[in-house]
């Protein structure tokens, strides 16, 4: 299993929106520019995030996109699953009935524990946590410049 660029771009776009002053709109092309996201990817990603209710889009003068929920309510696991579907390090862990060899497979328990650990980290980490980390990094960079 690999977390795709599309999921990474979705997380990065949400982080960008969360860094803006609350309620402020921005253009998708500005998010793409600031975050180095290919602009052809972003409309589809933003539409998905909007359907989920995390992003509000408004047309016209002063329009754009903005975060519509508290970033502390958006886990990385939720973003990845909205963009990619269920997270599984091996397809035998996707759902019931897929693994025909579960009882005899010596790896199944290992995959299951590894996946549980990964999902715990992704489920506990929110966009708000990334905002805090980003602000700390920016402060360190600013202090080093002085």
TrEMBL record:
Database matches in NCBIfam families: rrf2_super
Pfam families from the UniProt entry: Rrf2
Its protein name is: Rrf2 family transcriptional regulator
GO CC, sorted alphabetically, is: cytosol
Q: Which GO terms describe its molecular function?
A: DNA-binding transcription factor activity
